[in-house]
Task: structure prediction
Amino acid sequence: MIVLTTFDSETQTVLLEAVREIQAMAGLAGRSREAYARKPVALGITSPGFGQGKTMLSMALAGSLSHDLGMDVILVDADFNTRSIELDYGIVRGDGLTEALRGAVQIDHIMHRLPDTSLSVVTAGMALGEAERVARSEQAAEIVRDMKERAPCVVFDLPATLHSTTATVLAGLCDGVIVLVKAGETTRAELDMTMRRLKDANVLGIVINRWHSDVPRLVEKSLALKM
Amino acid sequence: MIPRKLVEAIFRRLPVLLLPIVLIPALVVLLKPQPADEYRSVASVWVSSPIGSQGDPFQPERQSFWLTDAQVQARILNELLRTESFRTDVATAAGLTDVAAPAYQQSRAAGEVGSLLSVWPSGSSLVVIEAKASTPEGAKKLADAFISQYQRRSDEETKRQTTIAVAYFNDQLVVAQQELQKRQTDVAKYLQQYPNAADPRSGDLNYRSLAAKMDAQDGVVSGLLNSIQQAYLTAASSAQGQQARFAVQDAPVLAAAPVGQTLKDRLGFPVAGLVMGLLISAAAVYLTFRTDHAIRSSEDLAGLGVPLLGYVPDLNASREYPRYRRIFRAIRRRPGDRNFARRLAAGIATTSERGS
Result:
């Protein structure tokens, strides 16, 4: 297992601060460890389309929660189509969530604890086109409960809502869902459609990813532009 | 409140939007044909109504006591300039066309004359006549032609009016003389019948009545003869009177140098190009703004019913040197290292106290 640690510290600080603000706005940062222990939280991250940054936010959110609060956090790759988290953390491909949902393996066997951290990663496994079926299985809710028993905070990297109904199913099992949109790419119509599909889930709010502004600060201040 | 998306649309495409604003005026300056040299010839004319002279035939009576002689004369000249026939006469006299030329050529030359000549009052008795042309000789000829044609017209008009007046008075005189002759005959016949009627002591009322009618008719005939004489006198003195009323003080001269371009001539086209460039850019901004349905800020989430939790900045962009960020984006629409943000996110859990 290899964890990539070569990065630009200044840029990472920017990301960390942004994620901390999201935690605070979503009501995750204000809770104590005891509160998390009493009532564990399963958090889902989704977006309307592919490549909008939901995996990045899932990893950053899970990482910052484990880092800042020092509690056990499980990051679950529930995006059966991309299965990319294992690559990001350098985990050797093997059994994952799919196999656990099938009942082939126990949860403990699919949790990969990152060295010197309180973060565990569950990879997606090999769904091979049956993601929808395994996500809808009765086993899914049970596995979510099991994970919450093992860690006070479980972060699910859900599939893109407009491309997979699995996202809607799994979002319903989470205590809260964060919808991520990509600035300048995701349209309002796509977001409206996503919100309609997530009507049964507890949507905590929206996060705008890859946000940038070309407007000079002076103009922003002069015109009192809203963020 | 200005929508953020509109301001973003402007600054996001700023180089493209500035292009027509810079390019169109520059093209206009480069492609605009250089104007030909223009020469000006100016004449000053003293206008007044000398004592004892007849008024200007073109102006039977003063239109307003508040207008000066120069204003009245300038108005007359400008009104004449609006007539096609006068302009054609001036154009012919200036050599811009000739009487044998086709009608359309004459008309075109007459149109040019209208735009090349200007008349305005300067003071109470001075009228300034300005002629413009591509050569100094042309400008002088045009000014000379204008003055001479006006004088000719004025003279002709005086003669025409005199002729009309003399003809009218002559007709009246013939009738009046016939009537006088009839009345003289009546008196003679009456005296044949009553030889003593002419004696004042006779007190013949009929004779007195006939004699009075004859005297009155004689007065009419004398008056008509005086009028005819006056009309001839006016005709004879019209040339001198006109010289007194319309005296050229400064005759048109050859211009030594061309007239410099005015500010309007120099900046007119570039400013028009600038306005067009601005309009094109404004239309582009409007189209970009109206067709941009992407989510960019909290304004685009209005009415959704869920809060905005926050922003994750564009980490690839922030890595680039901020000063050249826009250039990087313009050149490279997709960032080269797409996994950079994910590697950063993956590293957060293993970070020591960095950023906390």
In short: Chain A touches chain B through 75 residues (CB under 8 Å). Residues 1-7 of chain A have pLDDT under 50 and may be disordered.
